[in-house]
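Support request from a user on the community tier.

User writes: "When I paste my structure tokens into the form, the page sometimes reloads and wipes my input. The last time it worked, I copied everything first. Here is what I submitted, just in case something in the input itself triggers the reload:"
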């Protein structure tokens, strides 16, 4: 059963950016008015203090306003550029930084409920390692037989090179009892399994709903690092469930 599915594509979620402007030619190039000079060619400007009757300061030319059709076209081009840039920016954000997912199953209850929508940070694991207790989204391993499932969401419990097991309802890492502050006591009970040695480069994941989660204890197995999409860090919908993970 799928655990985390990205919402229907950007609107396909949320995307994009581009731009252009149209240079305005001079009046002569448009043919609407003849060229106007501040002073006639070849004639020296009148001196400021002259009192001669025939000499006066030439008037400055005022550009003719652009036709209404040209102004409308320019405005449309500018708006198209703004929208294009916004779309490109949103697509880049979704591809490399943050992506929304929704939760279609109960394997992460009570932390995540069916219908919750979460944001996944796709960038931070490029700068630091995956931590125990992180809620991660990852691609379905090839060995996981669940048609239609592309991505899953679980919590990291065991780290590369560790040995994990469960006995008497408790989880042990390298023989030491593991504290699990992220789980309410009523949901912390874990059926016996293991011990399982986690290969280097892999992570042992479990759902918070230990009694109803197909995870690394079963056919899913430990998850290779290269399948991890990112860390779920925020429940943003519904507002009643809003909060960090």
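"...and here is what came back when it finally went through:"
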């Amino acid at each position: 059963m799928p655990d985390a599915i990205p919402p229907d594509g950007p609107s396909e979620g949320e995307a994009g950016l581009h731009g252009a402007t149209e240079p305005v030619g001079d009046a002569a190039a448009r043919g609407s008015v003849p060229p106007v000079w501040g002073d006639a060619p070849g004639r020296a400007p009148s001196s400021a203090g002259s009192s001669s009757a025939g000499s006066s300061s030439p008037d400055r030319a005022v550009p003719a306003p652009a036709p209404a059709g040209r102004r409308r076209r320019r405005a449309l081009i500018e708006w198209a550029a703004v929208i294009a840039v916004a779309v490109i920016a949103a697509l880049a954000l979704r591809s490399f930084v943050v992506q929304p997912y929704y939760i279609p199953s109960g394997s992460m209850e009570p932390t995540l409920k069916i219908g919750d929508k979460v944001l996944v940070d796709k960038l931070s694991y490029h700068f630091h390692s995956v931590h125990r207790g992180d809620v991660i989204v990852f691609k379905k391993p090839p060995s996981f037989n669940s048609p239609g499932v592309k991505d899953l969401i679980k919590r990291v419990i065991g780290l590369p090179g560790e040995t994990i097991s469960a006995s008497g309802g408790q989880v042990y890492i390298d023989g030491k009892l593991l504290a699990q502050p992220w789980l309410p006591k009523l949901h912390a009970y874990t059926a016996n399994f293991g011990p399982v040695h986690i290969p280097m480069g892999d992570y042992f994941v479990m759902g918070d709903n230990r009694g109803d989660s197909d995870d690394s204890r079963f056919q899913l197995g430990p998850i290779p690092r290269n399948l991890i999409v990112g860390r779920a860090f925020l429940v943003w919908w519904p507002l009643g469930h809003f909060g960090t993970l």
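Agent notes: The reload is a front-end session timeout and is unrelated to the input. The longest helix spans residues 68-96. DSSP finds two helices and twelve strands in the chain. Escalated to web team.
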